Amino acid sequence: MSNMFCFQCQQTAGNKACVNTGVCGKQPSTSNLQDELICELIRLAEAAELTKKSLQQKKETDPKLLSRYLNTRKSADRLLIDGLFTTLTNVNFDDKAIKDYIKEVQKNQKDIMRCMPTDICSISDIAYKNFPTTNMNFSDTNMNSSTANINPPTCGLKDPHDIPVISLWDGTDDIVSLRSTLLFGLKGMAAYAHHAMNLGYQNDNVTTWFYKGLCEVNREHSVEEWIELIMEFGKVNYQCMELLDKANTESFGTPTPTKVHTDIRKGPFIVVSGHDLRDLDLLLKQTEGTGVNVYTHCEMLPAHGYPKLAAYKHLAGNFGTAWQSQQTEFENIPAPVLFTTNCLMPPRPSYEDRIYTTSVVGYEGMVHIEGTKDGKKDFTPIIKHALKLGGYEHDHSMSGINGGHILTTGFAHGAVLSHADKLTAAIKNGDIKHIFLVGGCDGAHPGRNYYTEFVKQTPMDSLVLTLACGKYRFNDLDLGEIDGIPRILDMGQCNDSYSAIKVALALAEAFNCDINELPLTLVLSWYEQKAVCILLTLLALGVKNIYLGPTLPAFMTETVVRFLVDTYNLQPITAPEQDMDAILGRG
Which regions form coiled coils (predicted)? Predict the structure, then answer.
């Protein structure tokens, strides 16, 4: 009997599944609690939809009841989004925090079902078709068996736990694969919706799809129906990335190309990791005038391109490289580190007392900065800690993976398309013969040096667009320029895949062609579930000929992979030289 089951990330054991402990450091108890949380989120989505359906069936609805439902559902919106994000790889390792979240979800389930009209006798009166007939038994440590027949409640007793929930990992291989693909995509989209919501932005269609998606995960579908759902999801995730792009740019300005130093100044400082620009902004406000410098880490690097964030003079540079190097780079660091989102690794003793978490991030024993209901946070503890530690006594030299000390970021769609005429002219003139998008998640897999070598081998008459933390494999390289355009263009965080899509669509329009007819090739690396939702968006938009690595997802069966290869010509990476020859038609 296995202790856990998890195959959602690229580094899953043997490229099959983690069954004893997570390669990410996640313990079986945490993994099983995260599965339990997912099932309770499914139950919450079902409860909300069942209650809505019951209210719609009534010709006359008590306005107070309807108002109570809408308010309770608003709380459910946040619970679904943050709950899904909590289960994303390298986000939360804190069992107590997850148990507390489960209790909060269960309370909301009951609150929302109390809004059901009193003359609805049982859940079975309004059940959906294809409802699962079995419930998951959370006392079973295997977490993989289906148990318990569903007994409908008596009239007036509408218990959310009478809502059946499918056993997530049970079923034929192909069905589990497709169900998992949609679920993991939802987890990725939840991260983007979370960041947008923190800035006060929501899209009703996106929010509604979290309910739909979780309910559909809880249904039985044919392979064709699953694929249709997954493609529909991909288009909704595009809307979510568009929403976050709007939230970020309207809050902090349109990114502009910016050079960022990797060396660390002497004196006290704080390192900020993750993706949440609002948390960074709050910290910058509170550290202003304190003598504490702030450095971005990993996916926070693109923050330097946003004018309102760059205006803080003590936003001093970028610390280190991608997330998987943190246990080495944070060794004996004389400063605290704030994790606003993933990717957190189990901290080592030399710096574990300096790790702070906030929002959905959690690790037992670490100091957690809570936020108020209106989003305010007090970072005084971490600021005091930075002053106490004092930072480096002298300026401290650090570099990128390839030895570079200057990184450039800020080439989002606003910056690139402001020079669209120059770019299209360079392509028409033959000065730019090919554009590569090389980006995605980084990780510790040994095959990931492929991306460094691939970029080094790109022809001098080509551009390399990049984004997410995979760029650290090569973003400190100097590949020169083409007519004043840097050959490496950092478009931002993983969610800024939206920028890459915008640029590609604009070029397709300029050349009056299909996006797949452009001299453009996507060479992507993946690690966690945000990469999954981005891939599904690209496929839903009809993008073909994508190269994906360092391995194909363990949760995708041969049948699913074959469908992606046959329909979209999805290619697993091989060797840099071989793939480059195939892309450019050489040899």
Answer: none
Residue 160 phi, psi dihedral angles, 5° rounding = -55, -30
Local confidence band at 60 (pLDDT 50, 70, 90 cut-offs)? confident
Token digits of residue 310: 């760059």
Q: For residues 391 and 371, what is the distance between their CA atoms, to the nearest angstrom?
A: 27
* Cα separation, 357 vs 377, whole angstroms: 12
d(CA 6, CA 169): 9
pLDDT tens track for 1-25: 789 999 999 999 999 999 999 999 9
Residues at the binding site for [4Fe-4S] cluster are 6, 9, 18, 24
Overall residue count recorded for the chain in this entry: 587
Neighbour count for residue 408 (Cβ, 10 Å) = 19
What residues have CB less than 8 Å from 228, skipping those under 6 apart? none
Pick out the residues of the known binding site for hybrid [4Fe-2O-2S] cluster. 275, 299, 343, 441, 469, 494, 528, 530
Let me know: does 503 contact 415? Beta carbons within 8 Å.
no
Rounded Cα distance, 93 and 141, in Å? 18
DSSP annotation of 527 reads -
List, in sequence order, every residue forming a beta bridge with 259; answer none if it has no partner: 408
Q: Which residues contact 237 (CB under 8 A, 6 or more apart)?
A: 185, 188, 189, 192, 533, 534, 536, 537, 540
What is the number of other CB atoms lying within 10 angstroms of the CB of residue 477? 18
In angstroms, rounded to a whole number, what is the distance separating the alpha carbons of residues 32 and 38? 10
- Give the pLDDT band (50/70/90) at residue 151: very low
How many CA atoms lie less than 13 Å away from 421 in the CB half-sphere?
A: 1
Query: Cα(29)–Cα(93) distance, rounded to whole angstroms?
Result: 10
Supply φ then ψ for residue 490, to 5 degrees. -80, 110
pLDDT band at 410 (very low <50, low <70, confident <90, very high): very high
Q: Which of 46, 4, 585, 93 is nearest to 362 (CA)?
A: 93
What amino acid is encoded at 113 in this protein? M
Give the pLDDT mean for 350-377: 96
Q: Give the side-chain half-sphere CA count within 13 A for 462.
A: 20
**For the chain, how big is the Rg over CA atoms in Å?**
24
CA distances from 218 to 46, 293, 380, 522, 557 (A): 9, 48, 44, 33, 20
pTM given for the model: 0.94
Side chain identity, residue 541: L
Rounded Cα–Cα distance for residues 559 and 567 (Å): 12
Q: What is the pLDDT of residues 504-513, one digit of tens each?
A: 999 999 999 9
CA-to-CA distance for 454 and 306, rounded, in angstroms? 29
Distance between the two ends of the chain, CA-based, in angstroms?
A: 51
Q: Which residues are annotated binding-site positions? A: 6, 9, 18, 24, 275, 299, 343, 441, 469, 494, 528, 530
Asked if residue 340 lies in contact with residue 274, where contact means CB atoms within 8 angstroms, the answer is: yes
Q: What is the pLDDT of residues 256-281, one digit of tens each?
A: 999 999 999 999 999 999 999 999 99
